[in-house]
Amino acid sequence: MSNFDRANHKRTEPIHKTQNGFDSNKSDWLLSNNKYSQKKNLGNAKTISISSGKGGVGKTSLALKLATILSNDDYRVLLIDCDFNLSNTAVKLGLPVTSSFYEFLIGEKTFAESLIHLGKLDILPGCNGHFELLKKHFDLERIIIDVLVNYENEYDYIILDSPAGLTKETLTLNAYSDYRFVVVTPDKSSVTDSYSLIKILSKEYGVNHHHLILNQISNQNQFQRLVTTFLDTAEKYIGCRIQVRGNIKKIQGDIAVDQFDSQYLLKENNSFHENIQEIVHHFLREDENLMPSISLRRSSGLNAKL
Ligand SMILES: Nc1ncnc2c1ncn2[C@@H]1O[C@H](COP(=O)(O)OP(=O)(O)OP(=O)(O)O)[C@@H](O)[C@H]1O
Ligand SMILES: [Mg+2]
């Protein structure tokens, strides 16, 4: 039995009551047996994690753009901010920061009440420096997998915006995802941290397939050099399969974060948007060939605006 009330989309009990030894459910089973590859039976949505290991490489910006582009293409999208207590999603969107996520954790808000709705895009934002969230122990990876298991039939894509760092939560959610988009910038520390991420995922979780997105690229030579180095090392020392998804140009000049958000992230007529749109559409063409359920549903007119 899950600790979700499906009819009301609400956690049935505050998490602190159910954390220790609640009945076995799908997320228990998935977590205890590491049966990530068998979870496909659970629902239709494809889960994409956006990760890097290193901070400040553009994960949240990519996650928001990716989610917006997919929802503008008429897909039902859920974006989950997994930076649970240093959430930037609402801030980047110019929306007020709230404690909804904490209230959801303790059962005071329903899942639906905790969401931000932007057209077909639903966002589950995190909190910002919420002290109660630090004081109590929440099994966050289990809670997010509970959400994924319960809502996988209501979305086409679920995007997980990972925080910086290699926590057990991040690694488990990455392992659970159908696709892992690893964001790397030309900084040496970004490359090293991404290796660490994929190495642990390979050794500890048996996950060996990743999608590489290079951000803040200044020119084609730099892109080629990075790709060659990354792929060679990943293949030789870790034994991973890396698919290069594309690159996002560095916006030149000294741009403050707020300026980047208002002029590039939230607007469409710029290289940041266009580069990500190209990556998304290329990915969709491959994804729909691999798993045709979405394209069939869309072409049948159920959800299409075309
Ligand atoms: N292509 C780019 N060109 C120029 N600046 C960029 C680009 N991509 C991201 N940035 C800058 O990097 C900043 C950090 O981006 P973002 O918050 O998306 O990173 P993050 O990886 O989510 O960070 P964190 O690890 O702290 O969550 C942006 O606000 C922007 O200023
Ligand atoms: Mg972020």
Describe the structure.
The protein has 306 residues and is an alpha/beta fold. The protein has a single domain (45-291), classed as 3-Layer(aba) Sandwich (Rossmann fold), CATH 3.40.50.300. The chain is 44% helix and 17% strand. The protein is built from 13 helices and ten strands. It has helices spanning 15-18, 26-33, 59-72, 89-92, 100-105, 131-135, 140-151, 168-176, 188-205, 220-238, 257-265, 271-290, 293-299; strands at residues 4-5, 10-11, 46-51, 77-81, 116-118, 121-124, 157-161, 179-184, 209-217, 241-249. The strands form two sheets. Strands 5-6-4-7-3-8-9-10 form an eight-stranded mixed β-sheet, with helices on both faces. Strand 5 and strand 6 form a beta hairpin. Helix 3 (59-72) crosses helix 12 (271-290). The structure holds adenosine-5'-triphosphate (ATP) and magnesium ion. The site of adenosine-5'-triphosphate has 20 residues, from helix 3, strand 9 and helix 11. Adenosine-5'-triphosphate (ATP) binds next to helix 3, strand 9 and helix 11.
Label this structure with key terms:
Rossmann fold, binds adenosine-5'-triphosphate, two-stranded antiparallel ribbon, binds magnesium ion, 13 helices, globular, 306 residues, alpha/beta
